[in-house]
Amino acid sequence: MTSSTTLEFSEMLIEGAKEVFETMIFMSIEKSPDATAPLGDNILGTITFTGDVQGCIGICCSKSCATSIAANMMGLDNASELSQEEIADAVGEVANMVMGSFKARLLSNYNTINVSIPSVVSGANLDTMLIDGQNRAVVPVMIDEHQARLMLLTKAKS
Amino acid sequence: MTSSTTLEFSEMLIEGAKEVFETMIFMSIEKSPDATAPLGDNILGTITFTGDVQGCIGICCSKSCATSIAANMMGLDNASELSQEEIADAVGEVANMVMGSFKARLLSNYNTINVSIPSVVSGANLDTMLIDGQNRAVVPVMIDEHQARLMLLTKAKS
């Protein structure tokens, strides 16, 4: 078992996210050269994991991006009927699916990864904070025409 | 095994939080009649759990409240030397300890509760969003002179 570097983790995360967005949400997600954090009201979906490596992955996007994701996941043409809870559900489910795809990649290097349940937070200028000796990666991405961020906090088992 | 109501869960959460704040952080925490959410820049520590009941607990407070908590936990007189990471660590650790105390109370009604690791988010107007058929309780509290909120999302095992 070899430990992965933060760069390797973030590559696995973006690959995992691409798989999910292309095959299950039918939107494109690409690394963006623009590292400017999207400001204003955002929605952040996170999910934590423990085991041979522990941490948290997150996806942070604008409410309009989250609404498009929810509409695509539910096959709706008219996104205006979506409730706050349906939009939050969709962001939590994206975090869950990306975690699944990321976990599949982690398992080539680690034996045990236990995934918890997603949680979803709304607010302005959202940012995950480093705790507990974790390493952090923030990957600016474009989800179709929306600027968003993938986030990753990891810490190897001590 | 009888399921608890959202009101019972929130009572267990405030009791668990009191135990932690009084015995380990040496600050008081009391339910506040003022349900006004603290605005401005906040820090939110959350921790998720799965098992016979699943969900998330959170503690949301101002940066100055989080700084006081960190200084008390570390036994510092001068909080001005604390780094962002030390403050975030303290909020994550509070979420972890309150979860432990809440879990001890849950175990009188439920057999299996698996706790994940905390995550900490900064931002303005932070709020947890309901997902996945969860029930939600928000308990406004005063931590010494600081207005703060305890949050709870729960869902019984289906």
What are the salient characteristics of this protein?
homodimer; 158 residues; alpha+beta; Chemotaxis protein chec; seven-stranded antiparallel beta sheet; 3 helices; 7 strands; 37% strand; globular
Instruction: Give a short account of the largest sheet of chain A.
Output: 7 strands, antiparallel
Tell the overall outline of chain A.
globular
Question: What separation lies between the terminal Cα atoms of chain A?
Answer: 14 Å
What is the number of E strands of chain A? 7
Query: How many distinct folded domains of chain A?
Result: 1
Rounded mean pLDDT of chain A is 92
Given this structure, which CATH class of chain A is correct? Alpha Beta
Helix content of chain A: 25-40%
- The CATH architecture classification of chain A is 3-Layer(aba) Sandwich
What is the gyration radius of chain A calculated from CA atoms? 15 Å
**SSE order of chain A, one letter for each helix or strand:** HEEEHHEEEE
Report on the architecture of this protein:
2 copies of one chain form a homodimer. Chain A has 158 residues and is of the alpha+beta class. The first copy, chain A, has one domain (6-124, 134-156): CheC-like (Chemotaxis protein chec), CATH 3.40.1550.10. Chain A has helices at residues 6-25, 63-74, 84-106; strands spanning 29-31, 41-51, 53-62, 113-115, 119-129, 135-143, 146-156. In chain A, a hairpin with a 1-residue loop joins β2 (41-51) and β3. Chain A starts with 5 loop residues before the first helix and ends with a strand. Chain A binds chain B through residues 41-44, 46, 48-50, 54-56, 84-85, 88-89, 91-92, 114, 116-132, 153, and chain B through 41-44, 46-50, 54-56, 84-85, 88-89, 91-92, 114, 116-132, 153. β5 (119-129) of chain A pairs antiparallel with β5 of chain B.
